[in-house]
Amino acid sequence: MKRFEDKVVLITGGASGLGYASALQVAKEGAKLSLVDLNGEALEKAKNDILAEVPDAEILTITADVADEEAVKNYVKETVSAYKKIDSFFNNAGIEGKQNETENYGSDEFEKVVAINLNGVFYGMKHVLKVMKEQEHGSVVNTASVGGIRGVGNQSGYSASKHGVVGLTRNSGVEYGQYGVSIKAIAPGAIMTPMVEGSLKQMGGDDWEAAGEEFVKANPMKRFGKPEEIGYLVAFLLSDQAGFINAAVIPIDGGQSYKY
């Protein structure tokens, strides 16, 4: 089933992790892709890897810093220039930042994490929603986190930014539903991506794999999620099949956010 035949899908953070897994899934279903990432070299590798599996895929790559509003305006402009529309937007780029208790959490680090995770999501929504409102259709999926719906220790910047993403999602969903645009967020738990691996290395150093085994004990399913499991959900939420899901936040965490 090609749910994205003749559809244009814009994805930030598309070079790795959740962004790449989602890009691959929608490409398999016929999407024309616009992939955005700060790492241009990784972006070209992602493009080539997708083409190896989906040789007829149309893929535009744009190197951009999502914390820079002018760069965000540009990636939207380039996408529309190439494809004339944006049907779906996976607003995904983000970082975790350094870990520390709030009293010792660096102010510069806090501002950096918020600039990428929250401001970047806001800028993306601000400029993509203008396009979708004019089209009178569209679907946006923002990447929040379990850390956006509950507290997580030693991650003040990350948790604050992801709570902000949840608020933006709900607010904008209420505003833009009347224009045929649905806006939702996913709240992933521990998914084995380069970002989560980096987090585990902060926690456990050279013994980070053991730290990971300890970490997943908080999950009722006792395992990490796989990026492709996020990709399947994102593809559904970006598709027309999920058009009536709006202003919602969907956990995909093996039950972690509901465990006391």
TrEMBL record:
Matching Pfam families: adh_short_C2
Annotated coiled-coil segments of the chain: none
Gene3D superfamilies the UniProt entry points to: NAD(P)-binding Rossmann-like Domain
Span of the signal peptide: none
Family matches, as InterPro entries: KR_dom (IPR057326), NAD(P)-bd_dom_sf (IPR036291), SDR_fam (IPR002347)
SUPFAM superfamilies: NAD(P)-binding Rossmann-fold domains
Domain Ketoreductase: 7-189
Origin: domain of life: Bacteria
Key words of the record: NAD, Oxidoreductase
Protein family: Belongs to the short-chain dehydrogenases/reductases (SDR) family.
Protein name: SDR family oxidoreductase
Organism field: Jeotgalibacillus terrae
